[in-house]
Amino acid sequence: MGRLRAIVMSPKRRPWWSVVKPLMKFPLSLQSIDAIADIISGNDGWDDPSRRIGIYRSTAKLEKFMRGCTVDFRVSGSRVPSLTDCLFELNNGFEAEKVLPRIIEAAANPRDFIHEPERHVAVLDHLNRALRFDGFEVQQQGGRMRLVEAGKGVPVLAELAGLSEVIDFDTVSRDVDRALEHSQTDPEDAITAACSTVESVCRSILIELGQPLPTKKDVQGLYNAVKQPLGLSPDRSDIDLLIAGDVRQILSGLTTVIGGVGALRTHGGDAHGREKGFARVDARIARLSIHAASTAALFLIETWQRKFPARPLPKAGDPAG
Q1: Strand, helix or coil at 7?
Q2: How far apart are CA 71 and CA 120, in angstroms?
Q3: pLDDT tens digits for 283-316?
Q4: How many CB atoms are closer than 10 A to CB 241?
Q5: What is residue 133's DSSP assignment?
Q6: By C-alpha distance, which of 169, 171, 191 is closest to 180?
Q7: Nearest in space to 151 (alpha carbons), one of 136, 165, 141, 140
Q8: Which of 183, 244, 250, 296 has CB atoms 3.0–4.6 Å from 239's, for a disulfide?
Q9: CB 134 within 8 A of CB 32
Q10: Minimal CA–CA distance to 61: which of 119, 116, 12, 106?
């Protein structure tokens, strides 16, 4: 068999501010690499679909799949051994934490199993049985698959991502995707994206209500503008007296949390620039910001749907009324 050729093709230069190392630990075990190869190649089940795991891909389709993952891969000799050797090489390379998640998530893409959802379930089971020993698992969050640390999935993020797709709220989807993607590799950008998630929700609510955007268009100003039409002011008088104090305290706390996310974006995010090679916050604080902002955004969307069940939120880019 000839020499294997597998070259990672970078779609863009790595930003100079990516100074925080991911928490994910690589390389993966040999068992996980074999499981990934099974899913991508179809497990040599071309002649017996009942044995097939994943999607059977010919040599040309294997090479095309890997190119789609920014890996310049050429089969040399047998199809599956070449793929496995390539994955082993990537697994031990210096960019494993960037390249392998992209390959794994693409291999489990639910769009490839639209007509066979039960096979997609089997794919996830096959991958996760191996990956969990390495501390990872593949989860579906909205319409995308993500490789995450095992046991550390965030239900509210998955629910928000899914809900924003259901209501065709594409700006929120982009902000959530960006926050999730960068929470470990670029926490400052993740904080900015988390704040943008709440701003996108508030802005779309105001557009749909035909109200002008506030003079102060930061997250605090936008949230203050939607509180009254959504009935979220702490001084509202239509709440059961038994729980009125508790609800007011929670709503006041929500205002404080949103203000804190906005302040953290100003002082710790990347929206206003930053010094080269300097990180003000770590991934832990970034995740706290994402969780807080996502919870607030989800609450605002659910409040909108309850108050205006027949009125969809506008798509990003729709003209304001």
Answers
A1: strand
A2: 24
A3: 788 888 888 888 888 888 888 888 888 776 654 4
A4: 7
A5: G
A6: 191
A7: 136
A8: 244
A9: yes
A10: 106
